[in-house]
């Protein structure tokens, strides 16, 4: 029934942490995203799952197996508006987490890329 592009394909947002990221960075960023108001509401209603794991993509940004990622998965039928909200909230949450980490730990936080799964290359 769905012959449109967006909603059926765009149900996953990948948050990729680059070289230099530690397991504690992944856990801290995941916890931060889980507390973002809109993402938390979707999790509580069962419409969003947030999981961490090894990166799914090897490339120039993640040499030597450094790629770690957090995956935000929208469950069920999702319209483009909800997906866009999750994508924007994830980007905003990552920016806030990087600024917070910069203020509480020495050195620069790892680079983080937020990509819709359908746009991953």
From TrEMBL:
Biased composition regions of type Basic and acidic residues, renumbered to the chain: 97-109
Compositionally biased intervals (Acidic residues): 110-121
Region feature Disordered, mapped onto this chain: 97-121
Protein name: Uncharacterized protein
Naturally occurring in which organism (per UniProt): Streptomyces subrutilus
């Amino acid at each position: 029934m769905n012959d449109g592009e967006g909603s059926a394909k765009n149900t996953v947002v990948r948050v990729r942490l680059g070289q230099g990221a530690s397991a504690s960075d992944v856990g801290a960023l995941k916890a931060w995203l889980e507390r973002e108001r809109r993402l938390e509401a979707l999790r509580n209603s069962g419409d969003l799952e947030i999981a961490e794991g090894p990166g799914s993509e090897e490339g120039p940004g993640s040499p030597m197996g450094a790629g770690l990622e957090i995956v935000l998965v929208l469950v069920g039928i999702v319209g483009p508006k909800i997906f866009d909200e999750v994508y924007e909230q994830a980007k905003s949450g990552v920016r806030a987490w990087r600024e917070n980490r910069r203020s509480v730990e020495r050195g620069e936080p790892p680079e983080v890329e937020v990509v819709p799964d359908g746009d991953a290359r």
